[in-house]
Amino acid sequence: MTVIREGDSVLLYLEPGKTWLLRVEAGKSFHLHRGIIQFDDIIGQKYGSFVATSLGKQVAALPPLPRDLALKMGRQTNIIYPKDAGLILLLTGIGPGSIVVEAGTGSGALTSILGYHVQPKGHVYSYELREDFSETAQKNIARVGLEKAVTVKQQDILEGIDEQEVDAVVLDMATPWSTVPLAYEALRGGAVFVSFSPTIEQVQRTVEALYESHFTEIQTRELIEREIHARIGKTRPATRMIGHTGYLTSARKVYPPAAKRK
């Protein structure tokens, strides 16, 4: 939508490093160090418009991007960074209409990105063992308006995957190898399994399980991100960078070959 309505999510942009992800509610306001913004002044404006604070500072009201959903939500756990989430989307082919199973909801950052991309007719079923994480994730998902695209299930995925013929299984858990056989049964033929693991030992055990469970195109990747400060006459790499966050292991389900005829 191009016009901001009550209940919509908005990213308020003041300057680099000063942004806020909010859900607009009529009659309410938001306090920042440069004054107060009345939500009634935002409702009815087009995304991309400026709104003035009580101190006259202009703040841009932008539509949240998937990266904002991940980085700006409250968290109790580490999140999967946009650089890794973007590759997950490409590896799996997740898009509008996809049915996705996720395990390790955590704070719901990756869950929200997946939910954003499966709209309007797809769905994400996210398994989370811990009750506190599940509750936080559901609040975060509701805050960005993705309740209809995501179901958070407080359930151990190792007890079984309820969904079948799904388009992708995405894991962010300590023992992804233990879920490989269950993922194989849940995936449709040719669909993609992806796991995110911080350590190479987790990768090794997961890859071994994938080979044992009739997966093919098994690959592991690591992404390193470095920002460039582009300024006339003084462009240079940023001093800090996002280095190792984790390894992404992907594979595709295939059926075992038929027995040869005698």
Helices and strands in order:
Blueprint: E1 9-15, E2 18-23, E3 29-32, E4 35-38, H1 39-42, E5 50-52, E6 58-62, H2 66-71, H3 82-92, E7 99-103, H4 109-118, E8 123-128, H5 131-143, E9 150-154, E10 166-171, H6 180-186, E11 187-197, H7 200-212, E12 215-221, E13 228-229, E14 236-237, E15 247-253
Parallel strand pairs: 7-8, 7-10, 8-9, 10-11
Antiparallel strand pairs: 1-2, 1-6, 3-4, 5-6, 11-15, 12-15, 13-14
Task: Describe the protein.
The mean pLDDT is 91. The protein starts with 8 loop residues before the first strand and ends in a 9-residue tail after the last strand. It contains seven helices and 15 strands. It has two domains: 9-64, Vcp-like ATPase, Chain A, domain 2 (Roll), CATH 3.10.330.20; 67-253, 3-Layer(aba) Sandwich (Rossmann fold), CATH 3.40.50. With 262 residues, it is of the alpha/beta class. The strands form four sheets. A seven-stranded mixed sheet has the order 9-8-7-10-11-15-12, with helices on both faces. Strands 2-1-6-5 form a four-stranded antiparallel sheet, with no helix packed on it. The longest helix has 13 residues, at 131-143. The chain has helices spanning 39-42, 66-71, 82-92, 109-118, 131-143, 180-186, 200-212, and strands at 9-15, 18-23, 29-32, 35-38, 50-52, 58-62, 99-103, 123-128, 150-154, 166-171, 187-197, 215-221, 228-229, 236-237, 247-253.
